Amino acid sequence: MKRAKKKAAGRAGKKTARRKAAKAARKPAKTSASKKTASRSAPRKPAAKAPAVSRNAGRAAADGTVTWNFKFLSHHMLEGFGGMGEGMSIQIAPDGRRILWLAHESAPKNFTAVDVSDPRKPKVVCQTALPHNDVRSNSLETCGNLMAVAYQTKDKNMQPAGMELFDISNPEKPRSISFFDCSGKHSRGVHQLWFCDGEYVHMASSAPDFVPTNPLDDQFYRCIDVRNPSKPVELGRWHMPGTKQGDNVMPPPRHPLDKGYRAHNCNVYPQRPDRCYLAYIDGGMHVLDISDKANPKRISSWTNSPPYTGFMHTVVPLFDRGLMLVTDESTENNAKDWPKLIWVLDARDETNLVPISTCPLPDHKAYAARGRFGAHNIHENVPLPTSWQNDQIVLGTFFNGGLRAYDISNPFRPEQIGVFVPPAPPGAPTGTIQLNDVFVDERQVVYTVDRHIGGLYCLEMDF
Fold this sequence. Notes:
The protein has a five-stranded antiparallel β-sheet, with no helix packed on it. Strands 8, 9, 10, 11 and 12 form a five-stranded antiparallel β-sheet that branches. Strands 3-30-29-28 form a four-stranded antiparallel β-sheet, with no helix packed on it. It is built from one helix and 30 strands. The chain has a domain at 83-400: YVTN repeat-like/Quinoprotein amine dehydrogenase (Methylamine Dehydrogenase, Chain H, 7 Propeller), CATH 2.130.10.10. It is mainly beta. The protein is 5% helix and 37% strand. The protein has one helix at residues 2-25, and strands at residues 59-60, 66-68, 70-76, 84-92, 98-104, 109-115, 123-129, 135-136, 140-143, 146-153, 162-167, 175-181, 190-194, 200-205, 220-225, 233-238, 266-269, 272-279, 285-289, 297-302, 312-318, 323-328, 342-346, 354-358, 393-397, 403-407, 415-421, 435-440, 445-450, 456-461.
């Protein structure tokens, strides 16, 4: 009996230590615009604390929800249009309401605004429609009362293909300010964009004057000046050498699944406003020098493919730790493209990026029967007052693997510390959840969305 009590006390002590360490880690990081670089600091040594119980896969509730260290707050089906993309941004409206703007995965809807002032009672305040079913607006960002929305068409030479800017000072009635047209014979428009400083939109886009060497390589990095939002102007662009007709290098070799050598996330942070951290799908990732925005230059690159299967998605630098997080995206059902991972890179020398670990996942065989399983989006430390800042904990979505949280205080050994896998929503085409994106606000409320039909889930971290 005494031995049992001693063991129970030990477990309780470890849990208390973990909560204290996690609470300290969740304090917002400073976001000064200093020139401190990832190359000037070594990976931080792990803090002295209890180890994560990464064996715990979570417990299933009566409704089938599997959860561990996340507290469920609410679920909203978004008026029956719950197929959500990878655009999530919080606005504090002029009247003080907290509005979560969400991009949709595909037609018929364009974007939805949800009042999450009380995350236990989210309320849709606006939902707009696309002009036709052959266009999608998968990405959006807000900065103050300005919102940028990306439009990508199903085929080339269609409209609307480009970026639209909205005045969202009245969330119920967003007002179009301007449209930056990217359409053309070889263009599908804009797939993803990054807009955090109110001045520049960084985007993965086609252009009417860009002729790719392979039709799949049609989108590249473009920087758009929106300081006058009524007249957006392109400042500069960069494409991976060999992907444009007329380049003086050979086109890159094709991967077996061949998703294209084209730009995806193009993140820029105030800690290094002269750098763009660019994911390039089958072309790995690139660090660009954008100090001269008219002439971006590549500093370094890293890829895991081959032997992996391409589709690099997101790059998030952790400046104070000399690290980078890099994600792949699973794009094939039934784990055909397994493994798709979150990678941790040593970035102390930005010219020589070195992978040092990956975030652990369960055996893919348990998830391979239906839908996608593998990495996709992570919380990106978006440099806005409404975004949580953290360099110790990573939250990512894994489609039918749900939402997962990792402690990376020891970057050589990430450990899982939280899981949330809701059951398949009614009518889910794959018969599973397909969690697509995640965003955490400065209150540490977690928002995650389903790709197909399930809408919005609001949670709290409990680790």
